[in-house]
Structure formats: structure tokens, C-alpha cells
Amino acid sequence: MKPDEIISYPLMTESASVMVEKDNKLIFAVNMSANKANIKRAVETMYEVKVDTINLLITPQGLKKAFVKLKPEYRASDVAIKLGIL
After folding, report:
1. Which of 1.10.510.10, 2.60.120.10, 3.30.70.330, 3.30.70.270 is the CATH number of 3-83?
2. Model pTM?
3. How many helical (H) and strand (E) elements, i.e. helices and strands, does the chain have?
């Protein structure tokens, strides 16, 4: 799968903005068939950062969310500003 097929769009809610500032995490809506390795490769390719960990969540509405924690040398707020969501 191509990176743009894996990551649908970034999510920004009030709690997500706290995660960006406090935990150095970004949240993305991702393809249901994507796994952690695919998501890691897509985020690192698309946003030129290094990923530390990824947690996945499937909502009752059928949306798959990826909580992506970046390595300490990269700032999630910089990526969020580049994406225009912060």
C-alpha cells in the first residue's frame, strides 16, 4: 500500500491537541487493513520524522485511529503546524 492509502487524514480534537503538546503524539485516521509496520513506514515517509511507538484503536463507528508517538528529537507540534491542524 502507498503511504497516502494508509493514512486517511490527521485528527485534531481538544484532547488530541493536549497529546501533541504533552505526550509528543499525533493521531491519524488510517485504513482498516493497515498494521503498525505499514503506519510507521507511511508516517516516517510522509512527514520526515522517526516514530517511537504506535497504538491502534477501532471506534464503534468503524474508524481506525493510530496514536503515533514520535522520537524525542522530533516535535509533534512542528508536524501539526506544518499540517495546519494546530
Report:
1. 3.30.70.330
2. 0.91
3. 4, 4
Q: pLDDT tens for residues 47-82? A: 999 999 999 999 999 999 999 999 999 999 999 998
* Domains of the chain, residue spans: 3-83
CA distances from 1 to 7, 18, 24, 25, 81 (A): 10, 31, 26, 23, 26
Long-range contacts (CB closer than 8 Å, 24 or more residues apart) made by 44-50? 45/3, 46/3, 46/4, 46/7, 47/79, 47/82, 49/74, 49/79, 50/74
